[in-house]
Design a protein that fits this description.
The complex is a heterodimer of chains A (about 280) and B (about 300). Helix content of chain A is about 45%, strand content about 25%. Chain A has about 280 residues and is an alpha/beta fold. Chain A has a single domain, classed as 3-Layer(aba) Sandwich (Rossmann fold), CATH 3.40.50. In chain A, the strands form two sheets. Chain A has a six-stranded mixed beta sheet with strand order 6-7-8-3-9-10, sandwiched between helices. A four-stranded antiparallel beta sheet of chain A has the order 2-1-4-5, covered by helices on one side. In chain A, helix 4 crosses helix 5, helix 4 runs parallel beside helix 6 and helix 5 packs across helix 6. The radius of gyration of chain A is 19 Å and the shape is globular. Chain B has about 300 residues and is mostly helical. Chain B has one domain. Chain B has eleven helices and no strands. In chain B, helix 6 packs across helix 9, helix 6 runs parallel beside helix 10 and helix 6 packs antiparallel against helix 11. The chains are: A alpha/beta (about 280), B mainly alpha (about 300).
Chain lengths: ~280, ~300
């Protein structure tokens, strides 16, 4: 109980919710991140972007404590997560949620059980209350009809929506989002964007998102961080970054836009060819 | 020119007309047969280091499980209990028909073999002893454990391996759900409870199988047959059988879950780790069986 109180108190007092210092990480002897230091202000939507393979997902997983960095420290609310006991880390994670690129649903559980899992695991809540909250979340994302479906029966976009619903149901203080609006249909994209915007408006919630989608960044980001050449190349308020005349920064942004367009084009091409085949 | 110590790909480099050959052979790595003893030691060293590393990882894994069992975190009981019931249902209840069939067959075969040879030595009266020693004390726990490794152990390794590959374990961690508490402990308790229960079940059906055969061959009544068995059956025999089931359950659960978590990134690792899980579990079970039997007779 003392531990829970300590964590809950710290969540109310600090200005920077996350501070990372001199973080470096390699994968199979390839350096992915080199000496990265950043502060994440509380209650903001911070978007990390960069070219494909620049280590964005690795960085967000390190910040969330899902990957241990080779070097450096990650402090969440002043608590160095590499030094705390794993049970304390699990306690801390009750205040965080991670939305995975693929949804990462548990394949042997139904949609309902997937969303209910964090509630039934952490809180001694009556089954009726859990059911009400899960049904509300399903309704919010237009997935009510799928409560008894297994993840394998859902499309990628639907799986992602369920992943978002599962992340949202915990009412987290920190939300980590990996590619929230990747290549998916407009309805799913809109529902996910709406949910993220609703959370962004809540000053108690900090959202750290990794995305390629430059339109999404332009519209919603409070802060933008650009990951390039294993380092944070630029980090600042949205307008500062977008209006910067730094030629290298502009070039990187142009490549990111190009990558997004090409990706969208290739997917549209695939969709079109499959439609032609059907005809 | 004949260079027997060289592998075929290197031979053509030694054409005397090739003027560059002395330089090339210096630049190249030393021909393989020169290295054979060194390569053997290198391979052995790599295997040994890998073995030690895996063993230490396994010890750390077990320590983590013990700490989680005796840790004071009160959360997750309800979710974990659901997983436990599912595991007992799959490992124990669903296995009942096949275990009954195997047990009947083993009981019958043991008695047929015994009745073929025992009369030669005038030792038919030892049928009860054979059933108790061979089936209740030795074959019962081992065959049940083999069956559980093949059926449920492989399923658990595959399931956990696939969960790692599909980031489901990361998803659990990100929600603050302890994978040890949610995945490993229900399997550990489920396997142990199922194996002990299946062991008793196996013994009953094996004795029944033995009785059915004896009834046809030496025309004995169930009461006489059971009396013979009860005469030789000691409480220690039953306890040792249950103890073995308990130990085998722990071994299978620990090794199979450990191997599942050893999958790193690729789905091709899943069958590899599953094979290792089966081999490791069977080896560990034989070792444990030997130790328990040795202690029993000492």
């Amino acid at each position: 109980m003392e531990l829970i109180n300590e964590i809950e108190q710290t969540f109310e007092t600090r200005e920077n919710i996350i501070e990372i210092r001199e973080v470096s990480h390699s994968f199979r002897k390839n350096l992915l991140l080199d000496n990265i230091s950043m502060d994440f202000p509380k209650g903001r939507l911070i978007m990390i972007t960069g070219l494909s393979g620049s280590g964005k997902t690795t960085l967000i997983k390190i910040i969330a404590g899902l990957i241990e960095p080779d070097q450096g420290t990650v402090c969440i609310e002043g608590i160095d997560i590499s030094k705390i006991h794993r049970l304390k880390l699990f306690e801390l994670r009750k205040h965080m949620a991670f939305m995975f690129q693929s949804g990462a649903l548990l394949n042997n559980l139904t949609v309902f059980d997937n969303i209910a899992l964090p509630l039934s695991y952490h809180f001694n809540m009556p089954a009726k209350e859990i059911e009400e909250r899960v049904l509300m979340a399903l309704d919010q994302f237009g997935m009510t009809g799928y409560r008894d479906a297994l993840p394998g029966h859902l499309s990628t976009g639907q799986q992602k929506l369920i992943g978002v619903a599962r992340a949202f149901i915990m009412e987290p203080s920190i939300m980590f989002v990996d590619e929230p609006v990747g290549v998916m249909d407009a309805i799913v994209r809109e529902r996910i964007s709406d949910a993220i915007i609703t959370m962004r408006d809540d000053p108690a919630i900090t959202i750290i998102a990794v995305t390629h989608n430059i339109d999404f960044i332009k519209q919603y980001a409070d802060y933008i961080a650009i990951l390039h050449d294993k380092c944070i190349f630029a980090y600042g308020k949205r307008d500062e970054i977008l209006k910067s005349r730094d030629p290298v920064l502009q070039k990187i942004m142009a490549i990111i836009v190009d990558e997004t367009d090409k990706l969208a084009e290739s997917v549209l091409g695939i969709m079109k060819s499959s439609e032609d085949e059907e005809v | 020119m004949n260079y027997p110590y060289l592998n075929p790909p290197y031979r053509y480099q030694f054409n005397p007309r090739n003027v560059r050959y002395p330089i090339e052979i210096i630049d190249r790595e030393i021909p393989s047969r020169y290295n054979e003893p060194m390569r053997f030691f290198e391979a052995f060293g790599a295997w040994f280091l890998g073995f030690v590393e895996t063993f230490l990882d396994f010890c750390a894994y077990n320590l983590l499980i013990v700490r989680t069992i005796f840790g004071s975190r009160p959360e997750g009981h309800r979710s974990s209990l659901r997983v436990l019931f599912k595991q007992v249902l799959f490992t124990g209840y669903d296995a009942l028909p096949v275990v009954a069939f195997i047990a009947l067959a083993i009981g019958a075969i043991s008695i047929i073999q015994s009745l073929t040879y025992l009369p030669i030595f005038g030792a038919e009266r030892f049928i009860g002893n054979i059933l108790v020693t061979v089936i209740i004390r030795e074959l019962g726990p081992l065959i049940t454990a083999f069956f559980v490794v093949g059926r449920s152990g492989t399923a658990v390794t595959t399931e956990i391996g696939n969960m790692v590959v599909h980031h489901e374990i990361e998803a659990l961690e990100s929600m603050g759900v302890d994978p040890v508490r949610y995945i490993v402990l229900p399997r550990l308790f489920g396997f142990t409870a199922s194996l002990v229960s299946l062991n008793i079940y196996f013994d009953i059906f094996a004795i029944l199988g033995g009785f059915l055969v004896s009834k046809f061959i030496i025309v004995t009544s169930l009461a006489t047959f059971l009396t013979r068995i009860m005469d030789v059956l000691l409480l220690s025999d039953v306890l040792i059988s249950l103890l073995k089931g308990f130990i085998f359950g722990i071994i299978i659960a620990l090794i199979c879950t450990f191997r599942g978590f050893s999958v790193k990134t690729s789905s091709t690792e899943v069958p590899q780790q599953t094979t290792k899980a089966v081999l490791n579990a069977i080896s560990a079970m034989f070792l444990a069986d030997g130790i328990v039997t040795l202690i029993y007779y000492l």
